[in-house]
Design brief:
The complex is a heterodimer of chains A (191) and B (158). Chain A has 191 residues and is an alpha+beta fold. Helices cover 48% and strands 12% of the residues of chain A. In chain A, the strands form 2 sheets. A 3-stranded antiparallel sheet of chain A has the order 1-4-5. Chain A has a two-stranded antiparallel sheet with strand order 2-3. In chain A, helix 1 packs parallel to helix 3. Helix content of chain B is 28%, strand content 46%. The N and C termini of chain B lie far apart (62 Å). In chain B, the strands form 2 sheets. In chain B, strands 2-1-8-7 form a 4-stranded antiparallel sheet, with no helix packed on it. Chain B has a 4-stranded antiparallel sheet with strand order 3-4-5-6. Classes of the chains: A alpha+beta (191), B alpha+beta (158). At the A-B interface, helix 2, helix 6, strand 3, strand 4 and strand 5 of A face helix 1, helix 2, strand 4, strand 6 and strand 7 of B.
Chain lengths: 191, 158
């Protein structure tokens, strides 16, 4: 299946309201950037309206009222808000390729003398540090919970599962789904 | 004189008992906390799958991935191309070859009570550092391949 055929197939599914989740978001990105797809969508809408009008005229004897919403108008009005949201997410992300700090060569992040002395007082401090770092004591704030987040090509984070992403020039979507115990990192294709 | 000796013994006895209790408490705490942090390796299950519009059934090994990805993408089949399980030490690298000629590398950077910090490098796609608990599934889109898309999944167990 060629790119064009795939786009047209998706356009029809989009027009029929069958696209959801990533697919819908990705397709709307392509739609925003492709005049040909916009024209095709407008043509589809014209056909739909024409059919609805014809149906209405057929059914007018029964007194039924047609409902023919202008889909593109609602999409176009929503696009600035989507753009703003994407820009906000990019701005809020720390766009520095700083590696995640990893504590190496230190025992629980404490100075070596604490572990080495063997004195009971020092051991108590170590024990306290161990308790503090036990599982469950940390309350991470995930980047996104079951909601796709469009992130900049390079993102460093101190919370959630994903701590750092470098995807070159491509944008990526991140879904951290705690319920499914799964994290999805998906590259978005260039349009 | 005799009374003084008894008093000294009692004092020493109390101190010794307190120290023993404190030491026992410390040992108990360490015994409770150390198993996760003392590990130096983690078992990694890596899988390379292909989702495509080609008709077919979902590979049972990819059932969990399929159940979640289906909510986001429309595809007809998911096929497992490579599955590899390996115990990997911290700072060592596990590599799988992708059918597009590239490779996917995973390096556990650290392992503690918060989970394992993995550095994932999928050539030609993304570089990700992710901290995951045991059993948490990391799923990466690794780009187009033929008529489908490659999916690399990593599940740490420890």
């Amino acid at each position: 299946m060629s790119e064009l055929e795939r786009d047209l197939q998706q356009l029809h599914r989009y027009h029929d309201g069958e696209l959801a989740g990533f697919e819908r978001t990705l397709f709307e990105r392509r739609l925003r950037r492709s005049e040909a797809l916009q024209n095709e969508l407008a043509a589809l809408q014209n056909v739909s309206q024409w059919i609805e009008r014809a149906d209405f005229e057929d059914a007018s004897l029964g007194g039924q009222s047609p409902a023919s919403p202008d889909l593109w108008a609602s999409i176009a009005s929503a696009l600035p808000a989507i753009d703003a949201q994407v820009e906000d997410e990019r701005a809020s992300a720390t766009a520095r390729p700083t590696p995640v700090p990893v504590a190496r060569g230190s025992w629980f992040g404490l100075p070596g003398w604490v572990v080495g002395t063997g004195a009971l007082a020092a051991a108590a401090i170590v024990a306290l540090a161990v308790v503090i770092r036990l599982p469950g004591s940390e309350t991470p704030e995930p980047i996104a919970q079951a909601v796709p987040a469009v992130v900049a090509p390079v993102v460093a984070s101190n919370a959630g599962v994903v701590r750092y992403i470098d995807s070159g020039d491509a944008s990526v979507m991140v879904i951290e789904d705690a319920a499914a115990d799964m994290t999805i990192v998906w590259m978005m294709e260039a349009v | 004189m005799h009374c003084e000796e008894v008093e000294v013994r009692r004092t020493v006895g109390r101190r010794g008992a307190r120290s023993a209790i404190a030491l026992a408490g410390f040992v108990a705490l360490l015994a409770f906390a150390l198993p996760a942090s003392a590990q130096t390796s983690v078992q990694l299950e890596m899988m390379v799958s292909l989702i495509s519009d080609e008709p077919g059934e979902a590979d049972p090994r990819a059932k969990r991935i399929d159940a979640r990805l289906k909510k986001e993408f429309r595809y007809e089949s998911i096929q497992v191309l490579t599955a590899k399980t390996q115990r990997v030490a911290v700072d060592s690298v596990m590599t799988v070859k992708l059918p597009n000629g590239k490779q996917a590398h995973v390096r556990p950077l650290s392992l503690d009570g918060r989970g394992v910090l993995l550095a994932v490098d999928i050539e030609g796609a993304v570089k990700v550092d992710a901290r995951a608990k045991s059993g948490h599934l990391l799923v990466f889109g690794a780009g187009r391949h033929g008529e489908g898309r490659l999916v690399v999944s990593i599940e740490p167990k420890f």
